[in-house]
Each structure stands twice: as C-alpha cells, then as structure tokens.
Amino acid sequence: MSKKMIPALEWITNYKRADLTGDLSAGFIVAIMLIPQGMAYAMLAGLPPVIGLYASTIPLLIYALLGTSRQLAVGPVAMVSLLVLAGVSTITEPGTDEYISFVLLLMLMIGVIQLLMGLFRLGFLVNFLSHAVISGFTSAAAIIIGLSQLKHILGIKLVADKNVFNIIFESVSRLSEVNPLPVTIGALSILLLIIIKKFVPKIPGPLVVVLLSIMTTSFFQLQGLGVSIVGDVPKGLPSLSLPVLTVDAVIALIPIAIAISLIGFMESIAMAKAIATKEKYKVIPNKELVGLGLANIGGSFFAGYPVTGGFSRSAVNYQSGAKTPLATMITAILIMLTLLFFTEVFYYLPHAVLAAIIMVAVYSLIDIKEAKHLFKIKKADGWTWITTFIATLTIGIEQGIIVGVVFSLVVFIWRSAYPHVAELGFLKEEKVFRNIKRYPNAEVDPEVLIIRVDASLYFANMSFLEEKLSERVATKEQTKWIILDFSGVNAIDAVAIHSLEEIMTDYNKSDIQFLFANVKGPVMDLLRKAGWGDRYHEKIAHLSNQHAMSAINNEKERLACARY
Amino acid sequence: MSKKMIPALEWITNYKRADLTGDLSAGFIVAIMLIPQGMAYAMLAGLPPVIGLYASTIPLLIYALLGTSRQLAVGPVAMVSLLVLAGVSTITEPGTDEYISFVLLLMLMIGVIQLLMGLFRLGFLVNFLSHAVISGFTSAAAIIIGLSQLKHILGIKLVADKNVFNIIFESVSRLSEVNPLPVTIGALSILLLIIIKKFVPKIPGPLVVVLLSIMTTSFFQLQGLGVSIVGDVPKGLPSLSLPVLTVDAVIALIPIAIAISLIGFMESIAMAKAIATKEKYKVIPNKELVGLGLANIGGSFFAGYPVTGGFSRSAVNYQSGAKTPLATMITAILIMLTLLFFTEVFYYLPHAVLAAIIMVAVYSLIDIKEAKHLFKIKKADGWTWITTFIATLTIGIEQGIIVGVVFSLVVFIWRSAYPHVAELGFLKEEKVFRNIKRYPNAEVDPEVLIIRVDASLYFANMSFLEEKLSERVATKEQTKWIILDFSGVNAIDAVAIHSLEEIMTDYNKSDIQFLFANVKGPVMDLLRKAGWGDRYHEKIAHLSNQHAMSAINNEKERLACARY
C-alpha cells in the first residue's frame, strides 16, 4: 500500500505533536455540533434520528484514511438529506423498514458511482452544474427544507410535504389546531440559536438548545402536553447490515443516486478546495471522489445514510484548529462513545428543537443577493439562477436541478451560436488592432476588412459568421481582402473548416481574398490536418494582423507596378 | 397580410413567365418520384401506403405558401418515418386504427412544437445536435431502416423488428422459409435501381421498377404465389379528420415529438441552406420552422403523417429546374390527381419493390468515411460519431440520439474544464508573442511569465488555470510579474472574476504582480461591472503583450533607480 493509494499514510507518518492540540479540540467541537445536527438531518431525510449518528461513525473513519482534504468534516448534511427524502419517498413510505433499506441501497449506489467517477477520473462532470444553477437550487432547497420542518414546530401533522405553497397554505388554514407548546419551544430555540450565532459564536448553539430543551422537557414532562420527543434512541454501535439489492429498486434509484453523487461531491470539493487554498496544500478531486465513495460504501454496511463534506461543520473544524484528519477520527470516536453510553440523554429531546436547528442552519443558504449580483454582472446567469430557483420551488427538488442544467446548456448553445464578432481598425499610436466601434479613431483601410470572431468555430455558428461577413462586405464595397483575426478562435471542428473553404471559394469569385492571422497552435494543427498547409500556406501563417496587413500592402504595390 | 408573414406573396407577385417551364418539369418529376417514395416511407412508418400520398398533398401546399426556401421538397422522408415507427410502436401496435390516430396526434404535436420554436425564435436549439452526432445517428438509422425492410424482400414475417442483430439472426435462422419469388423481385428491383442511378440518372428509377413490377405481377398474377402486394388503395382525397387528443397520449408522445421536430428541422434546414447558398438567396431558419410547423399541423387534419424537407427529392427538384415553390404546388396537385383517378394502378405493386426503393434510398446515408475523416481531424468528434452509431444500432433509435447528445456535451464540458494554456515568448524579428513550446527561439524575460489561456473562463476551469499557473511559477523561480494574455478569453463569468481576484491577492503576498493584456471589449465590460475598473485600472488596460511588457520595463527602471 503506497502513500498514493492511502493518503493517510502521508500525514500519519509525518504527524507532528504540535498539531495534536488543534486536532483534539476541533474533533471535540465538531462532535458536539454533529450530534444534534446528525439527528436533525436524519429526521429531515425521513429516518430515525439515531441513523444520523450511525452515519457519523464508519464513513468518517474511512474518509479520514482516504480523503485528501485535511479539514473537511464529512457526515450527514442538509441538502443531501432533503434529496434522500425527495428521491426515496416517491418509491416507498418514510418511516417503514423498506424505506430504511432503500436508503441504505441508495447510499451504496452513491458510493459506487462516486468511486467509479473517481477511478475513471470523471470528476469534471460536476461542471455540468454551473454556479448559478447550484446557487439558485440551494436557495430554493433551503426554503423547502426550512418549511418542511414547520410541522414539527407547529406540532401538527401536515398532509402537504414537498410543495412549499401547499405547506404554507395548509399551515395557515389549520392555524387553529396549532399546539402552542412546541411553537414556543421552537421559537425560543430559533431565537437562542440566532443570538448565540451572532454574539457568542464560540459557544456551540445547537448543543446549548439541545441540553436546555432536554432538561426543560424532562423536568416539566412536556411530552405529556403534546410535545413530540425523540424517545428511545437505541444504544450501541451500528451493526453490520447488508444493503438489499433488487434490480427494480436500483433502476428506480439511479436518477437520485446520480444527482446526490454529483451535488454531494460538489458541496464537498468546493469546501475542501477553499480550505486547501488557504492552507496551501492540494486536494485532488478524483481522489476525493474515491474517498467519499468508499465512505458511502462503507457506511451502507453499517446502517448509515448518504454523507458528504459539509460547509458549516468543515468551517468549524478548520477554525477550531484541525490540522489533520485525526480531528475527524476523534469526532467519529466521540460519536461512537455517545452511541455506547449516552443515548438515553436524548430521550426527552423535542422534535421542535431539531427542526429549529435545521431551520437556522439552512437559512444562511438562501442567497437572494447572489441572484442580484449575477444579474448585475451577466444577465444570462441571473436568469439561470431565477429559473432554477423557481423550478425547484414549484416543480420539485429533482426536476428543479434538471431544469437548471438544461437551461444553462440552452443559454450556452445560444451564446455559441451567435458569437461576438468585431470589425477591427489600427490604433496608430498604440500599434494594436481593436474594435472600431469601441475605438472610433482606429484607422481602417477601405480595401481591407479585418474581422475578429470571439468564439470557437463549429458547425453551428458558421452560418452566423457567414451572415456577419456578408453584412460587413455589403457596407464596405471596396473590400478586396478580408483578414480573419483568429486570436479568439480556441478550437475549430471539421465542419467549420469545410464551411470556411466554401466561403473562401465563394468570395474568391467576387475577387475577395482571405488571410488568416493569429491562428493558434492547436487550431493550426487542425487546419494542417485538413490539408490547408499545402493549399493556403501563405494565407494562414500570418502571426499577427500587422503581418497580414504588410503582406497585403506588398501585394498592392506589386499590382500597382504590374499595371506599367 | 404582409409579405413578411406569407413569404409566398413575394414570389407570386413577382412571378416570371420564364420560370414556369422549370417549375412545371420539376414539379412533375418530383411527383413521379414522390408517389412510390411516399407509399414506401408510409409502409416504413407502419402505416398504409395511401397515407404517404395523403401526406404529400396539404402539407406541400402549406409549405409552398409559408416556407422561405424556393426549392425544398417537403413530404415523407425515411428518417422521420423510422422515428415515427420507433416512437409510436412502443405505445400501440402498428396496423391498428389506434396507431394511425396516434400518428396523427404526433404530427399535430410536431407541428405545434415547430411552430412555437419558430415563433419564439428557438431554431438555434438544433445546435444541440452536433455534426458528428447527426452523421453517426443517420448512418446507424440507415442500417436499421434497410434491415427493417428485409422481411418484405424475404417474404417472411419476422418477429424481430428494431434490433438489427436480432433481425439478421432471425433472417439467417429462418432462411429455409424464404419465398424465392419476392426475393427475386426485390433483388432485381435493387439491381435495376442501382444501374439506373449510376448510368442513366435522368430516368426516375423508382417509377420504372414500380411500373415494371406492377405489370409483371398483374400479368403473372404473382400475388397468388406468395408475393405480398399493396392491394386496394382508397380512391379520393384525404378527408378532414380531427386528431384525437388525450393527455396520456400527449405525454407519452412528447419525447419522440421533440426528437422528430428537431431532427426533421435539421434535415430540412441543412438542405434548404445548401440550395439557397448556391442560388444566392436567404432562408430564414425561424420562418422555416413556422412553415414546416404549419405544414404538419395542416396535414394532421387530413390523414397525413409527419413531413419535412427531404435531401434527395429537394436535390432532384432543384436539378430539374425548380425556380419557385410553384413546383411544389404542381407536385401536390399531381399527387391529388393520382389519388382521384389512378389509385387502382398500385393494386398489384409488390411490397418487395417498395422495400427495394427504401433500401437503395437509405444506403447512401451510411457514411463510414465521415467517421474516418472526423478521426483524422479531431479524435473527440470521431469518438462521438462511433458512440452515437453504436448506441443507435444496439440500444435503439431514440436512445441512440440521446446518448450521442450527452456524449458530445460531456466531451465539451471536459474540454472547457481543461483548456489549452500556453507560455509565451517574444519573437524579436516578427514582433509577436507565441507559445515557447512551438517557437523555442522565442525570447523570455526570467522575471516575467506570460500565460495565454485559450478558453473562456468560468467557475469550472479556474482551478485548472490556477494549477497551471502554480506549476509554471514553480519552474520559474525568479517570476515577479505574470502577464495574462486574454486574447483567447471570449467570455468570463462572475465566479471566474472572483477567483481571479483571489489568485491575484495570493500571488501578491509572494510579491508577484498580475497584468492583463488583450482583454476584449465584452470581457472588459464584465470586469468593469465587477469593480475592476477602479481597483486595477492600469493593470487590466494593456492593449497588447508589448504594452504590458513596456509597463513592466518602466517599473523595473523605477525600482532600479529607487535603490539609489
């Protein structure tokens, strides 16, 4: 086993004693944060709270050995929990044994997908999810997550589950049934969490409200007064359990498994990279996939549910001084000790408090400001955000992200089909060629049209380029030479090369010659492969617009002299 | 009604008598070609042959009035017929009344989709289908189409229908059941069609084999000897019939309707553009969509089936002298006359002959050479071709095109995530900056690193760029300035701008300064919107690498003097 295969060998063999204090305190603080969060997120995923704790043991140990991030805190997170609920609840009822076994199967599938993506180096696939899509999706999902917890705080069992408008409508119309006790507990918890977060961020808010609420509930025996509590939490470590594999279930779960694999990895790698940049080390995306994948595969054999690297806990881990994955190992061990000895403590924990923890945690993910920012910088990105946000909120979690991805692809296709094209003139003083629209004082030779295309050329935008060319030529009747400035052409395809030849032949008939300038190496290679080297050698080899212009000027002189 | 809305007003009001001869003869020749083809393609689509003739009446008249191509021959085509069969046969059995009514509904849906795409100017969406995908798909589909006709020539009813391997396997294993008569008719027809096509292309081959086979069959009464014939073809024009709309059927047909809308339009616009370029007039893609859409909507009320502009008939129409859409109108009128008076003629037409016509027609669509060509020019395009081809052949018609589109998107995402990055040096003689790997004699200042990124920058490739930068800086220890040559950066997004700022701040800590050269107008606008104008004014405004270099040299002098 080399260090390349097991990244942990690297930090274990080089472990410095100085790092131990930071790792210990970070591991301890994250564990304190993770216990209530894990239980809350498991509840959000439609699972018994203890599964959130199980998911915080084996997967953490595996990731600590195989991950390349030193500070990433892996475990249950809100977004993935919601996706689990959205995906599995369409197949079977939450709360049943079948539901739990499907979640385990889903975890195994996610692990296998992530592992394969890592081994085949397909990490780049997350790039299908653009920033605008992720941000719009996260904001909408945060609202859905928050509202889905409303029932625990109102103390009523809502029929509506996923559609936010139905949830709001039903909550308002059944306001008379609301139980004031859980509302009070929930509201006080939210208030306390916000106050602690704002004024004494060093204190772990979730732990405070959990302990306070447990004491209050058990002292006043509030569970008898309509306050729903967590109740018995099974003692002991998770036992080995094999996920049940059936072909039908696997097929039904594939879409959600792919979605969670990508979204989970995206959340994880974003955070891992952010910390690694600050700490000046490298995380390797494809190895992260392997680490996360094996963490999920391992967890699926120990009654867990899908995990990934979370934003907030990783930030806390890092800020609390974590230097190596030992911190994560300490967290896992503390969770195990909790499972072994302290599960009774949570008997009196009200569901309303877990709901309050979730609500406060996800509130910060609603990022309407980002939409405004995107609109300011680039309208299309803003519209992508809005579209994804609205689709997720109205149509559904899984559909929302698909709508977002498709919309951003449509925007991309639209943009590459209608690229920016500029006519250039010469700035004498600066000795550069620039867009004559932006630099009206740029010099233009009436017989030479210089066109810069700001896009890779392919079958789909050639007709647009052709149109633009004929428009410009029509307004510039003396045109005898056209210089195509290829500095923006980063790639070209076979169809575009063929179309270019046709265009050149057509224009030659009207005595207009083509020259190519600033052709890049990779593009030149393709032109040569298509036989342009022999056919047009001198035309495509101009290293700059100046070179092309002087070739034209030489030609002009030659023609002038030929008259005599 | 203006000429803008009804393009026909343009050519009708300006009709020249000189064009009449060409239009008449082209209209006549296309009609002669269309009668056997229409019947054959309808059979391919799992419909009674007469529906192919119905589809060649009303839709042609509508397109002649509303289309912007003057020579495009609209009507039944092989590819769309196959897609109709592939899509509708999964819902209901071909040959039933329900099948016909679903095809009519599908035609209406295709019409509505194309009309809406035209009205909302969404024609650019066909760009999702790259050339490699279309070519690979067409080649595979042609093989499937050809083999699907084998049963008519062998004279046995095959169980296998779509999977080519099953078709071949079943045909071979049941070779003993084959009826030698249809095999002979089919083989002779194919031979005759090839010979006519090759040596006397002026003669319409399909008509010749149709007439010859009708005479032979009726003379020898071959239908009694196991030769399957077309039989009664209903006399008279198609009657008005309303497509039956049910929500379930509409939902089931949506995927295939979208696929046919796009593929049909693609085939049509490619041919229309090719002819328009030669004839120096303009076809307007979004108006073509409106024309085709209304042709399909109209046809769906008159017992037709989905139509589009076909490759081969349009070529024949153009070569036979068609000058205006009047030729298409003449074709439609001739088909109507045939329906009114000559349907008995086709009673004795053997199915094997129609199958032979289809096989010869689609053979030319199998374009393995194109795959080789793509591989030579650009490997990724070649792989896209192969993937689409194999997926279409093995998984299925509809799935094949989806696999192709997804594969080409993955290739694109991969490429934009790992763009080409070059380190530049100065060519003294030519006075240009080029890749030092390609121009080893390019001069390099040990303190200045010039990097050209050949890609638009966005969230997904920034980390790759960052990596490349740190790699280069690591090998060039004296680096004090980094010039980013943005000539290839055609676009940038908000996340990339933000990442760039972070990178700059990071490098500033190690006393490395950034300068930006060749920033294009559209990119500069975005940088300014993000506040870079105020923050980095002098750094981003360098019009060329030379300008950036002289700024650096000035700075170097200033620093040198400051020492004293």
TrEMBL record, chains A, B:
Residues 438-552 form the STAS domain. This is Sulfate transporter. CDD domains: STAS_SulP_like_sulfate_transporter. Its main location: membrane. It holds the Pfam family STAS. Keywords: Membrane, Transmembrane, Transmembrane helix. GO terms for molecular function: secondary active sulfate transmembrane transporter activity. PROSITE patterns: SLC26A (PS01130), STAS (PS50801). It is found in: Membrane. GO terms for cellular component: membrane. The chain crosses the membrane at residues 20-40, 46-66, 73-92, 98-117, 124-147, 181-200, 207-230, 250-272, 324-342, 348-366, 386-414. SUPFAM superfamilies: SpoIIaa-like (SSF52091). It is a multi-pass membrane protein. InterPro entries: S04_transporter_CS (IPR018045), SLC26A/SulP_dom (IPR011547), SLC26A/SulP_fam (IPR001902), STAS_dom (IPR002645), STAS_dom_sf (IPR036513).
